[in-house]
Every structure is written in structure tokens, then in C-alpha cells.
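Help needed: design a sequence for this.
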């Protein structure tokens, strides 16, 4: 196996590559992107790269420029310490998302992904509507989706079972694994699903444990995860670039930053219909402006307590309400609100367990 093959270059790409380009340039793969600069590899070592002026000036859309996972035509200089990119090899798959507010503008997330791991944590991050949006994006791109439920150590096994059943209601055929980075549960299942030569990516909100999973798979703390103190000081995103990592078994894995604005679908309209029974219950809250979080006389909290309202269902409702209000807020407002909400749900769960 040659070096390019060892990082995923196969017959399909070979047949798609432009013979005129490969006659005068080498082929390499984009490992990461940072603003206008790139890191590329030919399968041994990483090389700093930039786009040729000609490529930049003739590019008519973001589609024409390289993204993480792309195969590119490039010239190498100075003993392979610098590369100039001249073009992009046709892509097998492309993961992209619309930019907020601009329907035709989009951002490339990663290219040539075979399988996307869509990750949601089983605590307050779980949201079937958001999961559906991820599935739509991944399916649209002809990438195979796998759903991973993280942080299973935080809830009881039968609750995990229940969540898995719920997930299967929105994605009946999906491969689904519940795991924990903390206890190591089912990390091996995920690891053994990674095939040499295939490229995988980790998708999901910030904080669900994507980078920790990458570290669990590698077996060392190579990549920086989001500790609580870091979150305070440096802001939400620890993973600022999308980086392609080659695993020992020959599979490639791309970690992506959290996609807060994925799809940008307004959920408000669907919430009331989807949660009609909650809306009905809420009529019996003592206060008309009840936030359903801590108020005495809240009918929702009472219904959870009495077992008439599933906690998960309540969490989904609150999360979605929160999310739909989210789009209207400034970034710093969003950050505060998100944290407060997380704390609130944890507090509710805790107080429930105590009783
Ligand atoms: N309880 C628990 N916490 C986890 C687990 N995986 C990750 N975390 C924590 O969740 C936080 C965010 O993890 P990180 O990997 O940075 O999330 P990312 O933003 O998706 O990359 C960190 O504080 C991790 O320690 C898990 O399986 N169980
Ligand atoms: Mg991360
Ligand atoms: Zn209430």
C-alpha cells in the first residue's frame, strides 16, 4: 500500500483525479484549515500550505476551495516544508451548512467523509429534533450516519434504554451506540467499527464529548477538551479547527467544533404542536408567567414528580423552547443562558433523585 492509500486515496479518487493536474502536481490531503492557510499530508508528515493565487482568484464559490478531508493537487517546496495548492480533486462527499441569515451562503465543514458520528449527550443536550436536522444534513451528503449517545454514566441504564428507543422512533434504521468516556463503556464497540482507509467525523453540539471520545479512541489525552475552567476563560469552542487525525488502525477521524447554528431552522412553530400535552398542563401553573423551572405551583414540575410527565419529554420541551429563543440573542447572552439552563436542568434532576 502506498502512502496516499494509507490515508484513504482509493481507486475512486484515482479515477476522478484530473490527469493533467496529476501530471504536473502531486496529490495530498488536507489535514486542517485555519483561515487562509492549510496543513496537508502525503501520508508522512504534515506540511504547511497555501492556495495558489490563481486558485483563489478563479474560485467562484466556497465550493472551489479546499476544506478538511479534501484531496488536492499541490506543489511541494523546500524539502516538503511548504506546499502550494492548485486545485481540489473531485469529492466523494461534502459536509456543508448554511450560514445564519444568508440562504445561499454556506460553509464547508469537511470533505470525503464516509461515516458521520452524530453525538448527543444523554443529559440536557439530547434533542430529537436537532438529531433529525443532523440526520438530514448527513443523509443529504450521502454520508452514512451513526448516532452515538454520550455520557451514559450520568443516568441509569434503563433511562439509556428509553432514550435509545426514542431515538429509534426518529431514525428506525440507524446504527446506535450509547457510550461513556468516563467508564469506557462501549468505546471498544465504536473503535472496532472504524475501518482502515475510511474517514469518519464527529458531529454534535459543543460539550457533548467529541474531543474526549477522540482521546478515548486514541488512548491518550492528545487533544484539548473543554474543562470547566477553560470554558470560563476562553469561551465555548476548544476545537477551533477541524483536524483530520490518522488512527493506529488506519482509519481517519475528523473532530469538528460544535455547530450551534446547524440548519438554522426555527423550531418555535413546531414546539406547541409537538408538545400539546405540556401546553395543556401549563395552563394549571399557579403563575401565568411560570418559567417551569423552580416555581412553587408549577404544574409541569408537579406532573414530573407525580410521574404523569416524562422527565425526558420535559427536558426536550424546555431545551427546544430555550433553543428557539436562542436565535434572537447576542452571543454573550447565549453563552450565559446556555450555562444557566444546563445548571437548571442538572439541579432539577438532582432534586428529583434526592426525593
Ligand atoms: N460524565 C461524562 N462527562 C464527559 C464524558 N465525555 C466528555 N465529558 C466531559 O464533557 C466536557 C466536554 O467534553 P469535550 O470532549 O470537550 O466536548 P466537545 O466540545 O464535544 O469536544 C468535558 O468536561 C468532558 O470531561 C462522558 O462520557 N461522561
Ligand atoms: Mg471538542
Ligand atoms: Zn410551570
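Sure. Designed sequence:
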Amino acid at each position: 500500500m502506498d502512502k496516499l492509500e494509507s490515508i484513504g486515496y482509493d481507486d475512486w479518487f484515482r479515477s476522478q483525479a484530473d490527469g493533467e493536474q496529476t501530471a504536473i502536481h502531486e496529490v495530498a490531503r488536507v489535514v486542517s484549515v485555519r483561515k487562509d492557510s492549510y496543513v496537508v499530508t502525503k501520508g508522512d508528515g504534515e506540511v504547511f500550505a497555501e492556495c495558489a493565487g490563481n486558485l483563489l482568484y478563479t474560485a467562484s464559490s466556497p465550493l472551489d476551495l479546499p476544506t478538511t478531508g479534501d484531496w488536492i493537487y499541490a506543489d511541494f517546496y523546500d524539502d516538503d516544508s511548504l506546499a502550494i495548492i492548485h486545485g481540489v480533486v473531485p469529492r466523494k462527499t461534502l459536509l456543508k451548512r448554511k450560514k445564519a441569515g444568508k440562504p445561499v451562503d454556506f460553509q464547508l465543514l469537511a470533505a470525503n467523509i464516509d461515516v458521520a458520528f452524530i453525538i448527543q449527550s444523554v443529559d440536557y443536550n439530547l434533542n430529537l429534533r436537532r438529531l433529525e436536522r443532523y440526520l438530514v444534513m448527513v443523509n443529504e451528503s450521502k454520508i452514512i450516519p451513526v448516532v452515538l449517545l454520550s455520557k451514559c454514566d450520568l443516568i441509569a441504564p434503563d433511562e439509556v434504554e428509553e432514550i435509545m428507543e426514542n431515538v429509534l422512533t426518529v431514525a428506525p434504521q440507524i446504527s446506535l451506540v450509547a457510550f461513556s468516556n468516563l467508564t469506557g463503556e462501549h468505546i471498544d464497540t465504536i473503535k472496532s467499527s472504524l475501518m482502515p482507509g475510511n474517514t469518519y467525523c464527529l458531529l454534535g453540539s459543543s460539550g457533548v464529548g467529541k474531543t474526549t471520545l477522540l482521546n478515548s479512541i486514541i488512548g491518550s489525552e492528545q487533544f484539548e477538551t473543554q474543562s470547566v475552567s477553560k470554558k470560563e476563560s476562553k469561551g465555548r469552542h476548544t476545537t477551533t479547527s477541524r483536524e483530520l487525525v490518522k488512527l493506529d488502525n488506519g482509519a481517519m477521524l475528523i473532530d469538528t467544533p460544535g455547530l450551534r447554528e446547524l440548519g438554522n431552522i426555527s423550531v418555535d412553530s413546531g414546539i406547541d404542536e409537538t408538545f400539546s400535552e405540556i401546553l395543556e398542563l401549563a395552563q394549571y401553573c399557579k403563575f401565568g408567567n411560570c418559567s417551569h423551572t423552580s416555581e412553587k405551583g408549577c404544574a409541569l414540575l408537579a406532573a414530573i414528580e407525580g410521574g404523569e410527565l416524562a422527565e425526558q419529554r420535559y427536558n426536550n420541551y424546555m431545551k427546544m423552547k430555550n433553543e428557539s429563543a436562542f436565535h434572537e440573542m447576542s452571543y454573550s447572552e447565549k453563552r450565559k443562558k446556555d450555562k444557566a439552563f444546563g445548571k437548571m436542568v442538572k439541579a432539577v434532576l438532582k432534586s428529583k433523585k434526592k426525593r
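Residues 331-354 form the longest helix (24 residues).
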